[in-house]
Amino acid sequence: MEMIASKNPTKTHLLLLLLLVFFLSLACSQPLHSEPMSTTTTTATQPTPPPPPPQSKIPHAEAGGAARLRRIVLGVLFGSLTGFLLSLAFLYAIRVAILHAKYAPAIVRGPVSFTPQISPKNLHSALPSAQPLAHGPNGKYYKLVLDNDVTVAVKRLEASRPEASPSSMPNVSKSDMRRVQRQLELLARVRHQNVMGLKAYVREADRLSLAYDFVPGGSLEDVMKRVRSLQVNLNWDARNRIAIGVAKGLRYLHFECTPRILHCSLKPSNVMLDEGFEPILADCGVSRLIASGSADPELASSLYSAPECYQSSRPEKIFSKIWLYFFKMIVMALEFLWSLGGSHKPILP
Length: 349
What we know:
8 strands, Phosphorylase Kinase, domain 1, single chain, 12 helices, six-stranded antiparallel sheet, Transferase(Phosphotransferase), domain 1, 2 domains, alpha+beta
């Protein structure tokens, strides 16, 4: 060694310097006050971390409970809202019933007049002195002269009709009585030169009397009888005037009235004629006073009545066929001057 150092002292010094640097680098790589670098020692001295806790099922349970609670709350709210709405509907129905009972038109039982020319009391007192004129399937016709020299035609609906005499029929409901009263008020509002409007009525214990303007010329049926007996000459101009007047009256009743009035009993005996052979339709809407939505056997026996009037409970739906049928029957009677069911032969002018 001494020989190596003596032969090359520079290399010796360089080797010693490298060794010194190596040991210094090892010393610097270790932290101060640290244990020796050993994996086994480090693992033994550090505390073992606790194992991870097992996954709990509590979040799933909480989610199911929240959904169940939500359903319960929604059910309670929906039930409360439904009950509240039903309560409102029930209270509204009660209020409507009370208002209907309070403001429903009173049932008028005494004589009623729709014109100042007829006094209800005078009409009622003069009824026993009425002169009979004719008898129809649904009532009798009378001529009545009042105290003020006003002449009226009175039609009496007999007591066999419950609606015509509700005071003697305790089983008739008030709704039927009000229905008859509304129909009478509707007939009183009729204003047309070819339609006979209701002027007054008297509701008695056994009958209902309807007062109209008296037409001295009689009915088309009466005129046809006089023509057949050669007492009257009914030329084509007069027949044309009668047909046009009947068409105007039907148009007014079926298309211009609100609500429309169906004349389900139009025939020559219900077509009144004045001195100039101007027709006036009588018995308008009387069938509604007699039958309520059902066929009347006596009315159905009329050969002039449209079959639809008695085959359908709602003839309003087929009124276009009804009024055409009636008009054709009147035109046929005017053309041949004969009545259906009669034994006489047609007469041509």
